[in-house]
């Protein structure tokens, strides 16, 4: 942001540490002298000189940034460097190239450059001011300057106008008006620039203030909406995102327009900001500019999105170090989000000041304040707050000082009365946060009111988010304050921890209101039967509250809950339930996605941890809300199906019904149901096809799919096809289903996965079942790519053709996959230590191998190929991806059908698998059957290959 003291410094001293202006001027003079007879021949030398000076200057600016960490200092140095190059370019054009041309123009900067700040990759925005109609000579001078900058590789935005044209266009174009607001003189005819500034102030600013402010606030809201309307996205945009540099620019534009100041320091004199708030403004601005400058230097371009692959390098450049529980990059990003929150605080303070100046009453302000139309009036039940045009405001400046419980009452009244929050009240609240102490935290009424807010049947997430934004939530619950703005360096998590927790409460509230019945039918039905909704809401808010600690966050979170729940007024029984839910909040999700739900031991072990139906119901709802709040697209129908299956099997077990006998009965019912659905088939043929399916298939596949599969197999048999495929699109679940009928063999899973990789299909789940007569029926679900069913069907047909060609031997898979992955760079953004565990305790019949590592192309195919090499028979496998991390679980036996029991054999299997999943093998030659393309997060693949029941 443009600052007067710094401008004065540049005008007098400049930045000699990055450029010797005299030396540059002398060099230009020498080039002109050497080419005095033909100045145009000197252009190449000027260009080479400028390129070198520009590169050297930016390198020095980067070195200084690394030393002092000042982002504003770096941005101002680069801007000043650009000024000097423009001054010399203009000088060469007017004095040597076209000395006889009329050159009475002013070269000015606008935009960010107009504020005297430039990021390394920023555009150079210029305004050439003309005294009148542009002549041929003037055009040549401007073109010389512009082409020189373009040839230097710079991105230049420019306009050539008279003062009158600027005034006329700014009356109707907010963008042009904003640009002219930031006009800064560089060289040429300074009188023209002064005339523009004077006329702009008199003819535009004085009479269009309300209109401009409303437009800028609306523009800001639209920008926030496009970026997700949250400042807590884990890959934020430093410039355009909520709480970013553009928000600070909006503050500058509004204050300059309304308060008629050119320096934000003047807002302190006007009483708009306190000295501490102004210091916060400067600190926030400097930090954001440091991040942006480092980001441009690291990427070598104008990149403003702080993506995962850049965060680590920027954190290193800024000097962050790891701490127990948090990596260096996570500490950096937490600081970033706290600064973004500070920017939000400053915005609220400014909006409050605008209202105090009666901006809302000026015709045309509209936008932010026009929706409030009621008069200021008292609120029943309190003398400390009033309703002002649909918003809750403080009755006087001493409200929070007089009674700190008002920090909670304020939000409680806002919830109960459905009121917006008045900026003036938020300003007063923000300035009083230090009064939230242990006495308030232990206050019975304050905790009762907070619990009412949390369990509100209206919109608890909205009030919690407002409490969090205002800084109250983190101070009232210090344990929550520790995870405010904390991010996890993972592709799986889309939001900071505090935002995730609030979104979890929001998901729970929506389910309770009945608005999610279609997406979550089981949770929707269960929530109406639970005995205690308070424990569910408290557990929801606290389930990740111990993130960032060295101890497992589920165990540590349960300890925090045992401390906080009595404070909130919960009973000992309620506290035990909340602590249990937090300690087990990941259990159901992990069991559903990484364990074989057709294995009796899986259900038995899970039921022993749950112990009661009430806990099971609570855990289902908690699990659904937790996954839903991770981010867009993380929840899908397949995860819902797994959780429902786990619930119903566990419900049966807790009721005493899960046994081999009941399983046999259920298989008989399922087989009879399929036979009835095929009643129009000839009896002999119908029974033959019904018998070809084994028990796990009949128990886990919906009847409508069983019918469709059986008809598919029948048609293939009639056509004499040994190998056949079938395609079906599913727009609701955003997947496309490919069913493959093929001869079964040990490497079939590896080949299928490799085919999908070769054809560019991202597997989101798969079911592979053995049928009678040695055939496999494989159903693969891949991520949908096209909205139109016709386009998606054509794509799926291409993938099916690849599968058929490879399985029939027409094409060799290693060659296809090698062509597809040729030239792709290895992603080194995330580091996950590969682990392999082998357990004989998780199943009565199988050894369970669990592999955890970084996901990559071909991983599933490589692992299954290695298991085949080790002479292991895969009975079932579950492949689940959490962002960049994959957890693969394989239920295996040796070729005789026995578990792997010897220590030496287990050690060999673990070592061989670890060699496959370790990144050291990435540069070696391709293995026999490279597999699945790295999926878009999140992915849940379930593969079932049952052992024959005969």
TrEMBL record:
Modifies, by uridylylation and deuridylylation, the PII regulatory proteins (GlnB and homologs), in response to the nitrogen status of the cell that GlnD senses through the glutamine level. Under low glutamine levels, catalyzes the conversion of the PII proteins and UTP to PII-UMP and PPi, while under higher glutamine levels, GlnD hydrolyzes PII-UMP to PII and UMP (deuridylylation). Thus, controls uridylylation state and activity of the PII proteins, and plays an important role in the regulation of nitrogen metabolism. The keyword Transferase applies. Gene3D superfamilies: 3.30.70.260, Beta Polymerase, domain 2, cca-adding enzyme, domain 2. The keyword Repeat applies. Residues 497-613 form the HD domain. Keywords: Hydrolase, Magnesium, Multifunctional enzyme, Nucleotidyltransferase, Repeat, Transferase. Coiled coil: none annotated. Its EC number is 2.7.7.59, 3.1.4.-. It catalyses: [protein-PII]-L-tyrosine + UTP = [protein-PII]-uridylyl-L-tyrosine + diphosphate; [protein-PII]-uridylyl-L-tyrosine + H2O = [protein-PII]-L-tyrosine + UMP + H(+). SMART domains: HDc. Residues 737-818, 848-931 form the ACT domain. InterPro entries: ACT-like_dom_sf, ACT_dom, HD/PDEase_dom, HD_domain, NT_sf, PII_UdlTrfase/GS_AdlTrfase, Polymerase_NTP_transf_dom, UTase/UR. GO terms for molecular function: [protein-PII] uridylyltransferase activity. Uridylyltransferase (UTase) activity is inhibited by glutamine, while glutamine activates uridylyl-removing (UR) activity. Its cofactor is Mg(2+). This is Bifunctional uridylyltransferase/uridylyl-removing enzyme. Has four distinct domains: an N-terminal nucleotidyltransferase (NT) domain responsible for UTase activity, a central HD domain that encodes UR activity, and two C-terminal ACT domains that seem to have a role in glutamine sensing. Belongs to the GlnD family. It holds the Pfam family GlnD_UR_UTase. Residues 1-378 are annotated as: Uridylyltransferase.
């Amino acid at each position: 942001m443009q600052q007067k003291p710094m401008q004065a410094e540049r005008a007098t001293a400049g930045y000699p540490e990055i450029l010797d202006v005299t030396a540059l001027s002398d060099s230009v003079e020498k080039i002109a002298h050497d080419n005095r007879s033909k100045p145009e021949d000197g252009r190449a030398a000027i260009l080479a000189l400028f390129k070198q000076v520009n590169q050297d200057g930016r390198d020095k600016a980067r070195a200084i940034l690394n030393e002092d960490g000042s982002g504003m200092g770096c941005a101002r140095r680069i801007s000043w460097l650009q000024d000097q190059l423009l001054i010399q370019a203009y000088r060469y054009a007017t004095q040597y190239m076209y000395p006889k041309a009329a050159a009475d123009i002013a070269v000015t900067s606008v935009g960010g450059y107009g504020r005297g700040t430039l990021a390394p990759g920023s555009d150079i925005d210029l305004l050439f001011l003309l005294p009148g109609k542009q002549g041929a000579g003037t055009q040549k001078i401007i073109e010389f300057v512009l082409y020189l900058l373009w040839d230097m590789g710079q991105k230049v935005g420019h306009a050539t106008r008279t003062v009158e044209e600027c005034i006329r266009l700014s009356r109707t174009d907010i963008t042009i008006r904003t640009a002219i607001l930031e006009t800064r003189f560089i060289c040429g005819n300074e009188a023209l620039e002064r005339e523009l500034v004077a006329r702009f102030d008199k003819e535009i600013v004085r009479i269009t203030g309300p209109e401009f402010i409303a437009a800028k606030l609306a523009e800001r809201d639209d920008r926030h909406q496009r970026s997700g309307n949250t400042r807590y996205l884990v890959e934020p945009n430093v410039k355009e995102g909520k709480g970013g540099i553009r928000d600070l620019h909006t503050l500058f534009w509004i204050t300059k327009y309304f308060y008629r100041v050119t320096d934000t320091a003047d807002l302190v004199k006007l009483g708009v900001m306190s000295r501490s708030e102004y210091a916060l403004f400067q600190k926030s601005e400097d930090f954001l500019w440091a991040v942006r400058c480092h980001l441009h230097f690291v990427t070598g371009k104008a990149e403003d999105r702080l993506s995962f692959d850049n965060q680590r390098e920027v954190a290193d450049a800024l000097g962050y170090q790891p701490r127990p529980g948090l990596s260096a990059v996570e500490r950096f990003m937490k600081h970033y989000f706290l600064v973004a929150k500070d920017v939000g605080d400053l915005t609220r303070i400014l909006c409050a000041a605008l209202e105090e100046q009666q901006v809302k009453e000026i015709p045309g302000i509209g936008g932010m304040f026009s929706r409030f139309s009621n008069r200021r009036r008292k609120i029943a039940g309190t003398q400390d707050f009033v309703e002002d045009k649909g918003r809750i405001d403080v009755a006087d400046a001493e409200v929070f000082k007089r009674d700190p419980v008002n920090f909670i009452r304020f939000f409680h009244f806002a919830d109960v009365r459905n009121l917006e929050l008045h900026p003036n009240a938020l300003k007063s609240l923000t300035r009083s946060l230090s009064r939230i102490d242990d006495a308030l935290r232990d206050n019975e009424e304050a905790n009762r009111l907070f619990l009412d807010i949390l369990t509100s049947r209206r919109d608890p997430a909205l009030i919690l988010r407002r409490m969090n934004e205002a800084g109250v939530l983190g101070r009232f619950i210090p344990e929550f304050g520790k995870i405010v703005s904390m991010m996890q360096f993972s592709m799986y998590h889309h939001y900071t921890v505090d935002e995730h927790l609030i979104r979890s409460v929001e998901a729970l509230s929506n389910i309770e209101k009945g608005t999610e019945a279609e997406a979550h039918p089981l949770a929707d039905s269960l929530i109406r039967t639970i005995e205690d909704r308070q424990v569910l809401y408290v557990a929801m808010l606290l389930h990740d509250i111990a993130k960032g600690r060295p101890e497992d966050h589920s165990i540590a979170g349960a300890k925090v809950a045992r401390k906080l729940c009595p404070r909130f007024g919960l009973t000992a029984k309620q506290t035990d339930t909340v602590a249990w839910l937090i300690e087990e909040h990941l259990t159901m999700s992990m069991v559903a996605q990484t364990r074989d739900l057709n294995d009796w031991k899986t259900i038995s072990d899970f039921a022993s941890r749950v112990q009661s139906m009430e806990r099971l119901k609570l855990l289902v709802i908690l699990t659904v809300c937790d996954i839903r709040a991770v981010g867009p697209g993380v929840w899908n129908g397949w995860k819902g199906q797994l959780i429902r299956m786990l619930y119903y099997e566990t419900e049966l077990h807790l009721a005493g019904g899960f046994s081999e006998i009941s399983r046999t009965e259920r298989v008989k019912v399922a087989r009879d149901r399929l036979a009835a659905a095929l009643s129009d088939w000839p009896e002999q043929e119908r029974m033959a096809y019904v018998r070809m399916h084994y028990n796990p298939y009949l128990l886990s596949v919906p009847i409508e799919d069983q019918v469709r599969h059986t008809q598919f197999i029948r048609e293939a048999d009639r056509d004499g096809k040994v190998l056949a495929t079938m395609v079906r699109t599913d727009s609701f679940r955003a997947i496309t289903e490919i069913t493959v009928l093929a001869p079964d063999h040990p490497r079939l899973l590896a080949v299928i996965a490799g085919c999908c990789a070769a054809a560019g299909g991202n597997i989101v789940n798969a079911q592979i079942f053995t049928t009678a007569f040695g055939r496999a029926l494989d159903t693969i679900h891949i991520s949908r790519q096209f909205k139109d069913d016709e386009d998606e069907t054509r794509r799926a047909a291409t993938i099916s053709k690849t599968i058929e060609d490879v399985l029939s031997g027409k094409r060799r898979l290693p060659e296809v996959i090698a062509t597809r992955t040729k030239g792709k760079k290895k992603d080194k953004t995330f580091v996950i230590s590969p682990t392999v565990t082998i357990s004989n305790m998780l199943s009565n019949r199988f050894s369970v191998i669990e592999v955890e590592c970084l996901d990559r192309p071909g991983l599933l195919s490589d692992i299954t190929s290695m298991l085949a090499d080790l002479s292991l028979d895969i009975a079932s496998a579950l492949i689940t991806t959490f962002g960049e991390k994959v957890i693969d679980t394989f239920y295996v036996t040796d070729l005789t059908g026995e578990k792997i029991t010897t220590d030496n054999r287990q050690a060999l299997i673990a070592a061989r698998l670890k060699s496959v999943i370790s990144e050291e093998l990435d540069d070696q030659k391709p293995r026999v059957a490279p597999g699945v393309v790295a999926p878009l997060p999140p992915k849940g693949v379930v593969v079932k290959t049952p052992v024959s029941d005969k």
